[in-house]
Design a protein that fits this description.
four-stranded antiparallel beta sheet, two-stranded antiparallel sheet, elongated
């Protein structure tokens, strides 16, 4: 009597990509020595120059929008197409100078939904 072989297990790999067209980032520019704070136009130019420095002209052509900018805290909400999220994040992370002064971008939050950036659960105060 012949022994029947069990059927070979088949595995199917599924990779789900976000259907969101854009991603949103809450970022803060840190200038340790203080000095002049960039305006919204200078902030946008700084983001574009960071993309150009790391990814060349192709990176600089990436559509990035500054939705909000607070000059007092140097924080902003940026919108980028989902396929460019990693390029933008890496360019901001590796930027080290603004007007020949040390600086650093901190990515505070990221989400495919703008509403998710409206609050921070770490700062939530329950009564």
């Amino acid at each position: 009597m012949e022994r029947a072989e069990p059927p070979a297990a088949t595995f199917e790999r599924r990779v789900l990509r976000s259907a969101a067209e854009h991603h949103y980032l809450r970022v803060r520019l840190e200038l340790p020595d203080g000095g002049a704070r960039p305006s919204v136009a200078q902030f946008k130019q700084l983001v574009v120059s960071a993309l150009r420095e790391l990814h060349g002209e192709v990176g600089a052509a990436l559509p990035v929008d500054v939705l909000t900018y607070e000059e007092k805290t140097l924080s902003a909400i940026l919108r980028v197409i989902s396929s460019g999220l990693v390029k933008l994040w890496s360019a901001l992370t590796l930027l080290g100078f603004y007007q020949n002064r040390r600086c650093a971008f901190r990515v505070l939050q990221t989400s495919p939904f703008l509403l998710a950036l409206s609050g921070n659960s770490r700062e939530l105060v329950l009564d």
